[in-house]
Amino acid sequence: ELRSRAMSSRVGDPLAAAAAETGQNANLLIVEDRRSAADRLAAALGQYHCVEVENDPHKALVKATDGAYDLVLVSLDLAGFDGLRLCSQLRSLDRTRTLPVVMIADPGDRARIMRGLDLGVHDYLVRPIDRNELVARVRTQVRRRRFAHSLRESVQASMELAVTDGLTGLHNRRYLDSHLAGLFSEPSLRGRPVAVLLLDIDRFKSINDRFGHEAGDEVLRDFAARIRAQTRGVDVVARFGGEEIVIVVPDTRLDGARQVAERIRERIEVVPFPIHRGTSTIDVTVSIGVAERLPGDETPGDLLKRADTALYRAKKEGRNRVVA
Ligand code: GH3
Ligand code: MG
Ligand code: MG
Ligand code: MG
Question: Which stretches make up the GGDEF domain (predicted)?
Fold first, then answer.
């Protein structure tokens, strides 16, 4: 087996970012069993990339699925093996489906080149290979892949932003609304018990007034974190409004939900909240209204309204309490 690490990884190099832009410094796998041909490819591409040569197509497939490569060059003429089969495998496996593949073919290979392109192979080169063309075609594919990756990452990031509250990191109102809508519209979920807790910090306005809006934000963040810590992964915790949080507790009746609420209420009351970056602490309490879904409920609004009524009673009865 012939290996050549023609260029070491350039992590931390100030040129690395620029290299990413220009489609350089990629990890390439060359599948070619003729040593002189492999050497020529490795020499040309090794100037710009990290190159590895593999002469066994079966091992090449395993390596490619490990995910360490940015592109695979496949010679169609391997001894006793149709390189097109490897291309086809790379295109069909989940882990390599988007991995760029470039075929290396002989002039007589037109039919197989066409079949390869049909399979979705990204590009090809015909022998004798022009060094500059090889470098340019590989660079184009590496750039395309990196662009697709960065696009996907930014789409994921903005999708996450769209359903997350910036201050607390909890789900936002939009996420909550669609989650609740699902609980009322999905046939498999409509018959299941579900409870909601509506939490509202007591006299939060006076916290802002006495200690500043920044301290109010610190309390809100800590409040959210404590609630997250007191709930399970299946519970959906969302910022409902300013200092109000909704918790959706699946497969739970009123009694179970009341216990969850009481545990949270106590957790807020007993442990003081640090403010001004931990230089002092204040006591905070929370009022919680709890409701469970009833057979007559048709919309999330019906359920939330009962939780809101219960919260209103908790406030009226003196705050720092749970009403179900
Ligand atoms: P209670 O609920 O006990 O009746 O009294 P309260 O003072 O908490 O009631 P109210 O709902 O009237 O006040 C909520 C306050 O929360 C008003 C608003 O200025 C403040 N607030 C809303 N969002 C934020 C925020 O993101 N950060 C800070 N610091 N304050 C916020
Ligand atoms: Mg409020
Ligand atoms: Mg209020
Ligand atoms: Mg309040």
Answer: 192-324
